[in-house]
Write a structure and sequence with these properties.
This protein is an alpha+beta fold and about 120 residues long. It is built from four helices and five strands; from the N terminus they run H-E-E-H-E-E-H-H-E. A hairpin with a 3-residue loop joins strand 3 and strand 4 (about 90-100). Helix 1 packs across helix 2. The termini are far apart.
């Protein structure tokens, strides 16, 4: 199991999902990847309705985790217009999609064997 600081990967994934939901992200999903891959423990996947919102969600998540001294391993352009931002927290990988791109890439179908985590209501 990988560790990011002293906080468990599951707690990071749940925190990211909570931030995303509180900012009104759509279709927030957390997948437990531990039994099906070796490069991370959890995926958090969420959708935005605009490119501007994709970047706003990424900024909110980055700022929230920075408060507890957790920083992404990936560098990101704050004006990314690709429609897909990936934040790499080693044990937790966050995928923030513009809605049409999420439907196109369909990571939840690609990783269908992963167990879906129960997320608390916000």
């Amino acid at each position: 199991m990988r560790r990011n600081s002293l906080i468990e990967a599951k707690d990071i994934a749940l925190r990211v999902a909570g931030v995303a939901k509180s900012k009104k992200a759509q279709r927030v999903l957390a997948l437990d990847m531990r039994k099906i891959c070796t490069f991370c423990d959890y995926f958090v996947i969420l959708s935005a309705t605009s490119l501007k919102q994709v970047n706003a969600f990424a900024e909110a998540i980055t700022e929230d985790l920075a408060k507890i001294r957790i920083k992404s391993l990936s560098k990101r352009d704050s004006h990314n217009d690709s429609g897909w931002v990936v934040l790499d927290y080693s044990s937790v990988i966050v995928h923030i999609f513009f809605k049409p791109l999420r439907e196109f890439y369909s990571l939840e179908r690609l990783w269908a064997d992963a167990k879906r985590m129960r997320l608390p209501r916000v």
